[in-house]
Amino acid sequence: MSKNLHVSVLLDYYGNLLTEKQRDLAELYYNDDLSLGEIAEITNITRQGVHDSIKRTEAVLLEYEEKIGLQQKTDDIIGLLEKVNKRIQRLQDTCQKTNGSSLIMDELVKLEKLVTNCLKDYE
């Protein structure tokens, strides 16, 4: 994941913990993809001031992630759900090949839908 994308994701997780000014500048830079010069013009702050603020905000967001770890926890959950989904699919394949119980197959289909819906929540 590129650094800018990583910071943009962290902004989604921790943006409300920033000051309004930090959040606004970071959103303009990371989410709206404006240049430092464009942001400086819009906000009446020097280009250097915008740069310094964005770098400080980036450091704060990285520190939040290091201490709280929401993005890492989310990535771990997604990874676990994907593993569960693969195992469900293998069980379904085995059930079909061995003419397994239709009751078991029905439950596997329900589990697969549940896991798939959980994964969609993280998209």
SSE series: HHHHHH
Low-confidence stretches: none
By CATH reckoning, the class of the largest domain would read Mainly Alpha
Structural class: mainly alpha
Q: What proportion of the residues form beta strands (DSSP E)?
A: under 5%
User: What's the count of strands?
Assistant: 0
Radius of gyration: 22 Å
Attribute tags:
Arc Repressor Mutant, subunit A, RNA_pol_sigma_r3/r4-like, WH-like_DNA-bd_sf, 2 domains, DNA-binding, UPF0122_fam_protein, 6 helices, 0% strand, mainly alpha, 123 residues, rod-shaped, UPF0122 protein H8Z77_00755
What does this structure look like?
83% of the residues lie in helices and 0% in strands. It has two domains: 3-68, Winged helix-like DNA-binding domain superfamily/Winged helix DNA-binding domain (Arc Repressor Mutant, subunit A), CATH 1.10.10; 72-121. The two termini are 15 Å apart. The protein has 123 residues and is mostly helical. It has helices at 3-14, 20-31, 36-43, 47-68, 70-97, 102-121. Belongs to the UPF0122 family. Might take part in the signal recognition particle (SRP) pathway. This is inferred from the conservation of its genetic proximity to ftsY/ffh. May be a regulatory protein.
